[in-house]
Each structure stands twice: as structure tokens, then as C-alpha cells.
Amino acid sequence: MDDVEFEHLDRDATRAIFSQIQTVYAAAFPEYSLDGHRDRTFRQLKVPGFETVTARSNGALIGFVYGLPLGEATGWWRGLEPPRAADYTAETGARTFAVIDLAVLPEYRGRGLARRLMDELLQGRTEERATLATSPGKPDIQRMYQRWGWREVGRVPGGEGATQTAFDLYVISLR
Ligand SMILES: CC(C)(COP(=O)(O)OP(=O)(O)OC[C@H]1O[C@@H](n2cnc3c(N)ncnc32)[C@H](O)[C@@H]1OP(=O)(O)O)[C@@H](O)C(=O)NCCC(=O)NCCS
């Protein structure tokens, strides 16, 4: 996989390649609506600090990961079970980076690309912790994150327009 190139993209650069991102997203999440993905992502792209890392082979996009810092008014932790103290879920816009989507094309899987994408994204962040939301129906993916050092915090209901009725939230310290 030495021929794979990784690149960090800001909001404008992410918008510019959004159709490529959707092609990989469609292959990775065939069960989810592309319109829903577009609506969610363009809302998320309004948040300063949104960042993408891409993986390319011979110029073609083969994987990506992106996320954004949680703002003060975030609903990320709303409805968390078991509940946490208010100081655990308090956000400032600079405390927690939420990883939103991670995907690798099927033919490039099993070679460490997802791990490298995640490491590349998180090692440059200045927040104190990162979080992600996983599907309760994907235990293999949850075990993958656990092996990578993420810890389960609890379950939240899926919000309006979400892909799931519930999400299991994970957290990892970045310091
Ligand atoms: C999940 C996904 C991103 C992993 O991509 P990948 O590049 O194959 O991942 P890696 O090669 O870095 O391997 C990740 C881990 O999964 C394991 N793994 C890889 N392929 C596997 C397979 N076919 N079966 C079981 N485990 C596998 C690896 O052993 C590795 O474990 P380790 O890090 O403890 O060694 C990819 O399968 C994907 O896009 N899936 C669909 C979208 C999705 O579910 N995204 C995550 C939820 S948002």
C-alpha cells in the first residue's frame, strides 16, 4: 500500500470533491440514502474545523474519514444512557472532535487503510478527546474500534434524519 497517498482537506476542499466522496460512501454504505448523506454532510460542512483525510491510489479516491468539533449547543450526547455528569458532556467547540464517517472501498480493505486514515486525522487535532457513533447492529466494527483503543460511553437515540434509531457512542483521549 506504499502507493497510497493521504491528504488533509478543509471544508472548501471537501466540498470540491464531494461527488467522489459520495461514490465511495455509496460502496461502503449501500443501505443508506445518498440524499440524506448529502444533507447531513453539507450541514456539517458549515462548522469551522471540519476536516477530511482522503486516501488515493493512482489519483482515485479509495477511502476517507471526516469529522468536526462539537459546538456548545451540540445534541451529540442528548439522551445518553447510562447518563454522564454534565461536565463530561459539556462542549466548548474545542474540547471534542466527532469522527462522522470512515469508509474504504471494498477492494482495498484489510490492508490497514482505515486505521491509517483515522490515525492521520486524529494525530493532527488539537481537541482533548474524540468521539464517534456506531451502529448497535455492527459488533465487528465496534470490536475494531475497541482494539484501536476507543471506549464505549453509552447509547443515544438517533436524531431526525439519522441513519439509525440508536447509536453506541465511543470516546478516545487525544492527549
Ligand atoms: C470498516 C472499514 C472502514 C475498514 O476498512 P479497512 O481499510 O479494511 O480497515 P483496516 O484494514 O485498517 O482494518 C481494520 C480492522 O478490521 C479488521 N478487518 C479488516 N478486514 C476485515 C475483514 N474482512 N473481516 C474482519 N475483520 C477485518 C482488521 O484486522 C483490522 O483490525 P486491527 O486494526 O485490530 O488489526 C471498511 O470495512 C468499510 O468501509 N466498511 C463499510 C463502512 C463502515 O462500516 N465504516 C465504519 C463505520 S462508520
From TrEMBL:
<feature type="domain" description="N-acetyltransferase">
    <location>
        <begin position="4"/>
        <end position="170"/>
    </location>
</feature>
<keyword id="KW-0012">Acyltransferase</keyword>
<dbReference type="InterPro" id="IPR016181">
    <property type="entry name" value="Acyl_CoA_acyltransferase"/>
</dbReference>
<protein>
    <recommendedName>
        <fullName>N-acetyltransferase domain-containing protein</fullName>
    </recommendedName>
</protein>
<keyword id="KW-0808">Transferase</keyword>
<dbReference type="InterPro" id="IPR050832">
    <property type="entry name" value="Bact_Acetyltransf"/>
</dbReference>
<dbReference type="InterPro" id="IPR000182">
    <property type="entry name" value="GNAT_dom"/>
</dbReference>
<dbReference type="Pfam" id="PF00583">
    <property type="entry name" value="Acetyltransf_1"/>
</dbReference>
